Amino acid sequence: MPKSDTSYFDPLTGSGYSLQAGELTPLRLHECGTLVMDERWNYAAVCSPFWRAYYNIDAGAAVKVNGERWALGPDRVVLLPEGMSYDCVGRRGVRHLWVHFSVGARVVKGGAQQPWVVKLSESGRAG
User: Fold this and answer.
1) Taking the model in full, what pTM does it have?
2) Three-state SS at 124
3) What are phi and psi of 51, to 5 degrees?
């Protein structure tokens, strides 16, 4: 199913993909992709009704949550829960991968206060 031009602004439309055809599943993928960052990646007060997972092949970018900087890079995946407000801080040339998804139930009761960081072993990193 192709993504419509408006699905980015309304990610909870039918443009997401269920993992099992014809059935409601607890995990729904809205969008994923890659890009090479430039100054257009820098946004303040980003807040979404869905989760985001960020992985960067290069160091040099971060998200800021409540003034605290959380580095993005090749040794980690950073998960930003639904409803979390954060700032994007990037620099030109950083290779970035994102996944936007929803889960069927609220995973974090009362809202998360900080991102979740999954550290990757040397063998789990992109080369």
Assistant:
1) 0.76
2) helix
3) -80, 155
> What letter does residue 46 receive in the DSSP assignment?
B
For residue range 32-70, what is the model confidence (pLDDT) as tens digits? 899 999 988 899 999 988 999 999 999 999 999 999 999
Q: CB neighbours of 39 closer than 8 A, spacing ≥ 6?
A: 90, 92
Quick one: tokens of 69?
């900087």
Q: Are strands 17-18 and 95-103 parallel, antiparallel or unpaired?
A: unpaired
123: Cα separation from own chain's centroid: 22
Could you tell me how many helices (H) and strands (E) the chain has, helices first?
A: 0, 9
The model's pLDDT over 69-124, given as tens digits with 9 standing for 90+, comes to 999 999 999 999 988 999 999 999 999 999 998 887 666 666 667 899 999 987 65
Positive or negative CA dihedral for 23, 27, 28, 31?
A: negative
**Count of positions (residues) in the chain:** 127
Residue 11 and residue 50 in contact, taking contact as beta carbons nearer than 8 Å: yes
Residue 81's contacts (CB-CB under 8 Å, 6 or more residues apart) are 51, 107, 108, 111, 112, 115, 116
CA 7 to CA 2: how far, in whole Å? 10
